Amino acid sequence: MAMRFDLVDLQLFIAVADSHSITRGAQRVHLALASASARIKGLEQALGASLLKRVRRGVELTAAGESLLDHARIVIHQVEAMRGDLAAYASGTKASVHMLANTSGLSVHLPKALGAFLREYPDINVDVEERESDEIVAAIASGTVELGFAAEHALPDNLERFLFTEDRLVLVSARRSAFAGRRLIDFQAVAGHDFVGLTNATALNLHIARHAARRGMRIRFRARLRDFDAICQLAAADVGIAVVPEVAARRCARSMPIAITGIRDAWTNRKLVICARSFKALPRPARQLAEYLRKAARH
Q1: Using an 8 Å Cβ cutoff, are 118 and 126 in contact?
Q2: DSSP state string for 86-140
Q3: 22, 80, 201, 229: which is deepest, by most CB within 10 A?
Q4: Cβ-based neighbour number of residue 244 at 10 Å
């Protein structure tokens, strides 16, 4: 079966799917409504399947439409990546990799490996943004970002991944606090205590708050900061207790009078992975970064 459609058709279909309207989709890609309708009809004829169904407030995707949307996003993402890579070579500028990472990855686990990678690959830039693991998964699945660093429990089976490290969250408190002499506690035991934590926008803070809410707990913050070292300093001053990655806590304990207590709850033990839709299908710079991180994870 011959399938005749172009990138404009795919861009239009994505716009229609995102806006749930042929009219608004046409406006987004600067096409007349009649032209857009003809292109959608041509797509359906080429594929031999209905892609849209009309509802009261616009259109919804059929099962075939959902499948096409998934592939269309991949195609458009790959074309944009190709244009970016070739434009970089043509202009003599550096290639760029866009990556999303959760708080622990961005603050604790990635910097050392990224530093080594950037030294070895001076022609590649890396743009890393902080997101919660669920958001990272959605961005990878939709093709809007190339690589992710996320907690494995948030990943669906269809995303490829490899283990980078294990991340255990622990309780940090002043050495004179009620928790200082304890090896392990249940998270419920900290209910009612003052906390020092990350700002609302950070992925780790959202992760902790979500599990606290499931237990009917309301976390009361005395201070919010963006840096684990600063958080541990306030915990050492007995301003409040804190939940931070164990790697950061152990580092701070070398220079601060803090106590570290393990938390029994399963959600505090996380496997952190590097993920992508397909590592083989990544643009070359992103594939090089992924392979470098895979090797770094083994050491």
Answers
A1: yes
A2: HHHHHHT--EEEEEEE-HHIIIIIHHHHHHHHHHH-TTEEEEEEE--HHHHHHHH
A3: 22
A4: 28
Q: Which structure tokens are listed for 268?
A: 């505090």
Given CA atoms 218, 224, 226, 227 in this order, what sign does their dihedral have?
A: negative
> 11 with 30: CB under 8 angstroms?
no
Q: Locate 142 and state its tokens.
A: 């939709």
Q: Read off the DSSP letter of residue 274.
A: E
In the block, residue with structure tokens 């058709």: 9
Is the overall model pTM greater than 0.70, yes or no? no
CATH number for the domain running over 87-165+271-297: 3.40.190.10
CB 270 within 8 A of CB 169: yes
Half-sphere exposure of 180 (CA within 13 A, CB side): 14
Helices 63-91 and 33-47, interaxial angle, to 10°?
110
Q: How far apart are CA 92 and CA 103, in angstroms?
A: 33
Which CATH fold topology does 167-266 show?
D-Maltodextrin-Binding Protein; domain 2 (3.40.190)
Cα–Cα dist 88/159, whole Å: 28
Q: Could you report the per-residue pLDDT of 138-170, keeping only the tens digit for each?
A: 889 888 888 999 988 888 888 999 999 988 999
